[in-house]
Every structure is written in structure tokens, then in C-alpha cells.
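ok so i was messing around last nite and threw this chain in just to see what happens. nothing serious, just curious
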Amino acid sequence: MGVGEFHITAILPGPRAVVLGSSEDAAHLSPWHCEELLDLLGPGRCCRLLPRHWGDGWPGRGNLFLVAGKALGDGWASACGVASDHPLPLALVLRFAEPAWEVAMGRVAEGYGLSTVETALAKALAEYGDFERATAAARLGKVPARNAVMRLRAKFGTRNLAETVEHLLMIMFGPRSTDFKPVDETVADILQIGPRHLSVARAIAGGTPRKGIARASGMSLATVKALLADIYERLDVASAAEVSCVLAQASNVAESFLDRPDGALDPVPALRHAEVTVEGGRKVAYSVFGDRGAPAVVLLHSSICCRHPPTRFVRRLNRQGWQVLVVDRPGFGGTSEAPSQDVDAHFAEAARDLAAVMDAEGIDRITLVSRGTGQGAFFFTDHLGARVERAILFNPTPPIQQSPVDRGPLGALKRRYARSPNSIRLLIGLFLRYATPERIVVGMRRSFAESEPDLKALDDPRVAEDYLLAVAPLRGNLAGYIVENVSWAKGWEPHPKGRTDHYTLVFGRHFVLHDPQISRRYFTRLLPRADCHVIVSAGQMILYSHPEEAAACVGSPA
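result:
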């Protein structure tokens, strides 16, 4: 979620309240209430959580947050979608908008296969945190509600109700920083707690028991209990799950509004799903993240998933000034398969599809970013020529004969593919038929067990959800997966035919499917004029685990 997903009420001089972006008075907020809110904010405060008795009957969902007008930077009006001459408010009252809340919950329900009862309870838990209140809001009896919680925990892989609520809200709110430090000061200010309180609150919200918090922090159990009692009193909550609820919402408000160095509001990247029809009647599906007209990065998906991208990486590119296009290649996701099953013809068709998308979007030149499909990138640069200004390959996959070392279950699958390429259709079909979100995540953890950076990334629900959303469309369209992986298993080895001075190679040091040193030697031989970088703390999934470093490799538009 972000700025565009909030219902925002502005308190203007008078004081009076209006729905931001209109002259309509906010009927839910009288002048007397405005004065009371400004008193609650007090001098020297930039934002705060409102007590729970505020907001009954107000538009929106979840907790209410108050942001001082003085905390807003020069870009606040543009970020909120109002005229640049809009008067600076004394304060803004924020609450998550009903439509955005429903869309976010729908994404969770679809991604995890939640039933109607599970969805209703999850929606209420996300809003209230409290089990009793959520049960009443979902109109469930206690026994069906408890059973639904057990099923939610099994599907989310969580240990208790607090961790379940935290997991649910982190997925609903979408891209979030992997490093809490930039927003910690703001979150502490919102919740009126200190750094020690905040660290304990984060731990309890993540499902860690009191004794575990004491051991990890070096504090006594009595100190942890005292801090928790203080947290409960200040937040006006009665359980760890309610702490999860309030903390996740406050963190999202902090990141969405106040995490930029200049304190300006952070605009939410626009997202559009679209398709074009190309010669022969084929459909090409694509998505655009960011503002139309901005310089464009095209992100190529790997050969084992579809176009849904690593959203943290995309968000950072948006902040750097890029719009990001992701296009399903032939036979992946929503794109029709190519007329020919020959792999060279398949990638040539993919390059023509991208050219058609660029034309439809009015884009002349792009920066091409590839994850995994290093060899396939050559077809795009050769076919598009000068329309590709730069090509950045993250952990490019070498030909199988140049990849003698691998590890774990994915490595075993790779060796099976190499021994019997024609079995790929059967193997992947069986895998997808019986795959559930839980099994996919468990399988990924087993596969990355020897790559600590990748394993750590999978602890982040956002990363797991991104991967699931990228894999799920394979169920309905396997043609492209089979063409690319069968050809790779048979030793397909294309070479660039055009210029090679605009490539950048980026490798992680940890590995699963192929040794990065061997891969680096292969691609630097093939592309001798390419810049080459190694991110020593990264593994296979660089764009997921190290979005900041990956975005820095792309840089800002010229």
C-alpha cells in the first residue's frame, strides 16, 4: 500500500476538516474534534497513533494516524494528487481506504487459497488484531473461528496469532524495506514509545515469546515483562496480536509518508496491466510500474517463472526515476505461445513482442535488466539494436555444459533435466499439479539451504509472495517454460551477434544452481567489454534479497 491507498482527511485553519482533494467538509470531524486532535498532536510531534475510541463510523479501515502539516515536504501536494497551490494543512488524518484494503486482502486470499470463512476472519484480524473482536466482526462462532485460525497458521507457516497477524499485514501492505532502521524513529514517534520498547514490540509482534526476547536482548525477563506492560498501556491493546496489528499499520504509514530524506510524501508507483495483439493474432501480456513517460527499464523474467517482478527492486527503480515494464515471453503467463517451438525462433518472437509493447507505450529506448536468462538477453539486444541503451544481467545462467557444479534439490532437478530433457514436461506438470503455496515455500527453503542470503530473504513474507505470484501463472501456460528449459538441458548456447560494449554483469558470491566463478569466467569471455560486479553478500536471488544494491547497479536515468 502507499499514499494512494489511504483515505485522507485534511484539517485546515479555522479549524475545519475536509476530505483531501475536495471542498467537501468531512462530516465525521467537527471543528471541536479538529481542535482536540491538534491538541493531541501537541508541539514538537510530527505524527501519532490515535486512541482506539477515535474513528468509529469514520470512512476507511484499520487504525487512524495523525500527521502534522509541518512534517510534510514540498512534494506533499503532488504525492497526494491535489493541486500544487492546495493550502498546507495543519494536520492530516490517515486511514486505510476501503477499496485498497479489499484489494490487498483479495491478493492474500488468492495467493494462499483462503476459503470464504478464512478470508472473512483474516480481514477482521488485519483490522483489529484482537481475536474476540475479529470473531464478532466476521460473524463467526468461537469454534469455527479457532479452526479458521489454525488453518491460517498452517497456510502462512506461522507459530501463533501474533505472527499470523504480522504476516498477513506485511503481505497486504506490499513492498516494505528489509531494513527497519530508516523508519524506526518515525514509528517510535507515532506510537509514543522509545527504542527499547520498539525492539521488544517488534519481537513480540513477530511471535517471539517473552523468554526468547529476554535471551536475545540480554535483558532480564522481569524487564521484558515491564516493557511489554508499558507497550500495552501506551498502545491501548491487550495482546501480542494487537501489537502486531498496530505496529504493522504504523510502519506502513511511516514508510509510505515519511521515509524520504526531505520528509515529503512518497508517491505510490502506478501499476497497469495491459496486453497488445501482434501479427497472427497472438496476445502479449505485460505490466507497467511507474509513471508513463519516465525513462524505461524492461525487466526480463527468468525461465522458471512469469512476469510478476521482485517488487522491492521495482519500487527502488521507481524512486530513482524509472518506469518498469515486465512482459510475459511467449508461452508464459498471459502471452500466447510462439508459432515455432524452436528456441531461437521463440526468443526472436519474444524480442518482437517487446518491440510491440514499447511501440504501444510510446517508448523509444530502454535499459534491459535480465535475471537468470542471460543467454536469452542476447536476442533482445540483437533484435532491438540501438533501442537498448544498456543491458544488465544479474546472475546470468550459462549453458548447462558450462555449469558443472550445483547444490541441493534444485541442483538434483537440474541434473535430472540434463539426463532426460524430454521428461521436463511431465516433471513440471506433476510439480504444479500438487504444489500449494506452503509446499513451494518449503521446497524453496530446502533448495536454498546452503545459500544463507537466499534463505534469509525467504523469511520475508513479501519475497515469498512475490515468488508465488510469479510461479502461479505457469499452471495455465507451460509452453514457454518447456521450450526454454528443454533447450537449455540439451545444451543450447547462443552468442551475441551485435555490439557487446553496453553490457553489465552482476553476480552473487553464494550459489545453488551454478558456481558464480565459473559463470563469471564464461560470460566475461563472451562479453570481454562488459563491466563486471560481484555482490559478495548475495546469492541466487539478488533482486529479491539485495534490492538496494541491485538498483544501484542500474543507477538513475541519465
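not much to say yet. The chain has 24 helices and 13 strands.
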